[in-house]
Each structure stands twice: as C-alpha cells, then as structure tokens.
C-alpha cells in the first residue's frame, strides 16, 4: 500500500477507483501485505518452529480466515461463533485453541464434541464444568490452564490482560492447585500452560518478565507441559513515532527458555498479522469551521471503526490524492454519529482538503470490522480483498432494509 504518482494504491488499484466502484465507507485489505506479515512472523521464529494460531477476534471475516488458513495458520477463538467461522474457513480442529473467561456449558460441549486441540481453562469452576461434560461423554479432554503472571504490559489499560486486577487467568497459587487437580482427574489431560498479558505491546520487557514467571511456576509444578501458549499482543506502528517490536531479542529469550523447558511454543498473533493489511476509505461529507478548529466530517463513524472511541487509540489519516498544498490549521476528523467520542484524529496541519475528497484511515485490519456495530441504525460497510489487480468482495455492504 503506497502512493503512485500521488494516488494512493492498494497493490495495483488506486483508492479512487475502488471508492467509485464499491462506495464509501469501505474496508479494503491487501493480500500481499497479509501474506508478507505471516511470512515475516514465521521467519522471526524459525528455530522455535511454533504453532501459530491467528486471533480470530481481531478479524473474523471468513474469507480472510480462509486465506490465513491457506498460509498455514490455525485459529485462537474466544466464542462458539468464532469457532464456527474458523471451521467454515477450513481450519482443522487440531489447529484450534479455545480461550476466554466465560465459556458457557453449551460452548464447552461444542468444543469437546469437535475434539479441538486445547481448551484453555481460566477458573476452577470452568475446569469442573469441562470435567462434568467429559465424564458424561466418557472421554478425556485436552486442556491448558491460563496463568495470570501479574505482568504490566505497558500498553493501553483497556487492553491489558495479565495484571493481578485483570479478570483473565488464575494466580500462581490457584494455578498450582489446578495442576494438581488435573493430574488426578480421569477425564482431563493437562497439556498446556497458557498466558496472554495484553495487546499492542511494543516493549520487550513485559515478555521478559512473563517468561521468568512461567519458568518459576513450571519448576514449582514439576510438570512437563507439552505446549506453552505465549498468547499474542505484539504491537504494530500505528503512529510515525512508534518504536518497532524487537523480534530478535524476543526470539533469543524464548530460545533460552526452551533450553530448560522442552515444550512446543504456541503463538496467537492477531494485530501483527492483519492490522496494517487493512485500510478504511472514507469520504468528506462536510467541513465545519469554528474559532478553534476545522471539523472534517466523514461518512465513516465510530460504528464503522470503534478503536478511537473505545480505547483512545490514534490511527494515521492520509489523503487519497496528494496535492502538495499544506494547511497549517487545526483539523479534527470526526464522524456523523451523535456522540462526542465519534472522532478519529486531531492534527495541527493537513493538506488542503475539500468536501467529497477521500481520506484513508490507516492500519484498521485488526479490531476494525470485528468491533463494528449498527449504532444509529447505520448499515455495516463492505469489505474487499485486493490481490494484485483483482478485487474480491468478501463482505457485501449491509442495506438499510436488512436492519429495518
């Protein structure tokens, strides 16, 4: 995705052409960027040879999942619906891991019937529910136990999952108790120690601390886990000044860890696979000026893209056509929803822009469409996938008649 002769292109097609054919707002994904992200992720951990399960919650489009499956990844799911989508995309049951703090009895029963690779347990009550179902079905169920390592991931507080006050996983003492219980059960086969400390992590230090905690806990259990599930959370550069994650150091830390612990590593990346492979193309409806700033009112809104309103996360916004004329005014890019949080970005300069121009909200592939809603009775936008010079509609634009 880049500019060619001042026109922004997704692979070989300009966003101007795409918007004319498919209208706006429009989610657009680059297959080449997706493929390169997966290849790069694999290359970073060649020596480790991990199992890589894509985090379906980050983007659950079945056509995207099918491409990800074809590129060799499995699925990390947190609901029955996500599991059904993964299966529909052709992902094998033994390449699916089921996580989440509130799995219902019916969801657990569904996962057990499908014989997926692992159910990662997050509480004693969940463990007992799995054991009850397994006993009724007279089968042994493969499980992991999710440890809360009390590690601050230094990320947005809304996407931190590994601190003591977070709802995810169990503390060290509870973990040790659940390991003992699982070892004695006739219906549970403990295979995995699982952790996940948060999302959009760019520092290596939280992972370093996490690995030390895992190593200590494994020594206390005296148990050999077949799998160590390190979750996901590796961040991407949303803003120009974001530092890049140091894969080399992380790889070295894991290699040292594996010298003492003979286990297969599982990763559950989402954002680092699909985040920068997606853009949201939007049209300027109105420009509204006051003494403080110029409001650029877009046809995309917080229902189409929720991250700014939900997390306060910033995404770069760029013009579809570069004109070289910079305006040194304060601009705020907002949507038409009746909420003050329906805004995307505030900048102190932007190129000269007028009504009906197109802008691009960058890096929306993860937690973009998957968080979209019909708030204000607004139809969901279309999604397209670009491969070289071909375009596939992977989700049709919703119609008002579908909602009313």
Your description of this structure?
This protein is an alpha/beta fold. It folds into two domains: 2-28 and 275-403, Lyase, Ornithine Decarboxylase, Chain A, domain 1 (Beta Barrel), CATH 2.40.37.10; 31-274, TIM Barrel, CATH 3.20.20.10. The protein has helices at 15-22, 31-44, 62-70, 80-88, 105-114, 124-137, 172-184, 205-221, 247-260, 271-274, 307-311, 400-403, and strands at residues 2-4, 7-10, 13-14, 26-30, 51-55, 74-77, 96-98, 118-121, 141-146, 188-194, 227-229, 264-267, 278-289, 294-298, 317-319, 326-327, 331-334, 343-347, 350-351, 358-361, 382-387, 390-395. Helix 4 links the parallel strand 6 (74-77) and strand 7 (96-98). Helix 5 crosses helix 6 and helix 8 (205-221) packs parallel to helix 9 (247-260).
Helices, by number, come to 12
Largest sheet: 9 strands, mixed
CATH architectural name of the largest domain: Alpha-Beta Barrel
- CATH secondary-structure class of the largest domain: Alpha Beta
Radius of gyration: 23 Å
Task: Outline the low-pLDDT stretches.
Answer: none
DSSP strand count = 22
Structural features:
404 residues, alpha/beta, Lyase, Ornithine Decarboxylase, Chain A, domain 1, TIM Barrel, 2 domains, nine-stranded mixed sheet, eight-stranded parallel β-barrel, 12 helices, 22 strands, 30% helix, elongated
Summarize, please.
The protein has twelve helices and 22 strands. The protein is an alpha/beta fold and 404 residues long. Helix 5 packs across helix 6 and helix 8 packs parallel to helix 9.
